[in-house]
Amino acid sequence: MNRLSQLKMNTHLFATDLGDLGAGEFFCPNCGAPIMTSDKKCANCGYDLIAYREGRPQPAPTSAKTSQASSAATESAAPSAAAVASTAKSVAVTSQIAESTESAEVTDSAESAVTSAPSAPDSALPDVDERVIESAASAAAILSSIQADENPEEIIAKLRAATQQLVPDDLGQPASAQPQSSASLSSRREAHIADKTKDISDIVDQVRAATDSAQPREHLSPDDITLESTASSAAQPATRMARHEKTAESAAENEPYQAPRAVTPEERAAASMQQADEADEPTTSESEAPVKPAIEKAESESAEKIRPKKSKRKWWIIGIIVIVILLGAFLFGQHYFSRDAQLDRAFAVLATNNPSRVSQVMTSSDADLRLTPGNSRPFIRFTKANPQYLKTSKAQLKKANATKDGTLGFVKEGHHFIFTAYQLTIAPTYRTIATDLPSPSIYLDGQNVTAKKPAATQKIGPFIPGTYTLKVTAQTDDKTLSRTVHATFLTADAQTIDLTLKPVTPVVHSNVANATVYVNNQNKGTLQNGQLTLPALTWEANSKLHLETKIAGETVKTKAVTLTKAAKQNIQADFTTVPTTAQAQDLLTRLYTTASSATNANNANDTAALAAYFKNGTDAAAYKKLATFITQARASNSNIDHTDFKVQVDQVLTKNNQTTVDFSVTYTTSYVQTSGLQTRVQTYRYTGAHLTSDTKNLQVIDFGDNEQKIADNNAN
Question: What sections of the protein cross the membrane (predicted)?
């Protein structure tokens, strides 16, 4: 079964092609008279329908009457062809509206023709003009060429072409001139052809919908098309299909309107034919005049009804998109502008150590202080040297609005759109500077911050917490005193800073001849033979002094010594890697104690113990000299009971890996009581005595070449 037959069966339509023997009602291919599928021959012309179905040639006519009837039927097709176009247009355009007066007349004539056609004699049919036959044949040929798989537009074009063949103005004769049988047959044909024309329109629309599913469907309400006609109430449907639709319309008028319906194929075909007629014919009849305005009105009203629906749907879509965007923006903003997220971003900026960015992310909690890239540098210096401070502060601000030291805060500050805005704040700090001079000048990072009325105690601020270089200068005794400190000021720190300006003059001694002296890590000079008197210094709390030198290619330092407020002070700073003054004092004290014991005749003379203090032992010149003195003191004629020795080391120096010592020895000789001699006291000074450099086994090399008696009581 082809596509066209399927459409017919699915929609329960009648057969429509002039030569097609489909299911249902159709008409004779020879004369056009209405027949049924059960008929074997045409009742009008006697055409063998069975032979036509089987494709066999028609049998020869048996009588002249049959031939005459066939000829008459063929000739009668021409006058009825002229009525086909008129009736098709009238029925298709007015399927949904009131029938015109002309349609009513056609219907009445068609019904009377159906009744009277059988009784009319075939011989009564008049002769017909050959042009009529040719026009009918051309129309039939055009309609027969319609294929099931053709484009709907091509089918419509062929229908229009067939209509133009059937409606020439000079085609046919007036109905009044035809015999009764011919008029009845023509009426029946006109009614039947009108039904088939509507069926063709139905199939065209079905083919259009099946081949072009993307074509949009239009919707019209039952009242969308209204034709004004004075004769509409009296008109009757011309065909069975029209009468059936008219009955349905009458029933629908008594019911309330439920919902808009789709445009029917009849309406669509009627509109197409009406447009074709208007293009071809310069004038229209009274019944056709209202059709075009009514269709245009229906289309405009339909467009107006459809447009708000599309517009409303468009606004619904836009509204949903806007809601989704707003919801997404709200969720993003809720996270982005949360307190923790804002705090994280603020501390990320602080970690950059960029003064411009830091001054933008922080504000001062004091209206008198405005944060700028310049005054934020001290805070950056502090956080750069103490990165742990930022981590600790951030952790504290996660739980509270301020850090424990009160320096930083994180508080509400307006809104970002609908979200709460938070601001990182820094509390400014103040300091009190105390000095012992009446009018000091105070500088903070090189900027003079001295009070308008200088005094020994001044309050400075506000300034941003951080690490500063603080300098105080004053004039006294024609001498300028200056003191500089690198201080870190945080809000919770002590508020008073002691910057006393007091001059001190330390004298530095060391066991290294040419060491360098440093005070608070500042170079103050180099020792000369292990000694240096420093120029007047401004005393500072916790001022430290130390020495540096190179021994065996390595830089060594002494232990730091704290300076006091005393104007004159001696400072001994020895290096532990070479013999120190204390070590030399201990060595010489033990040596002379052994010698003192040996001078007493009552004690044993342990020469081996004495020789152990000398590097060369008993061969040392210093040992031999001291051993001679002991021998003389132990002699019985010396009247010496014993001799005591007191050693005082003045200086020990190491230079070029050689250690020298300067010391003095006081001899106190006691005589036996029976001699009547007085105690004699003598003091000898030794300069440049040599010691070994091994601190673990310190020994005397010699007492030098410079022995000098510096004191003698000249007793006895």
Answer: 315-337
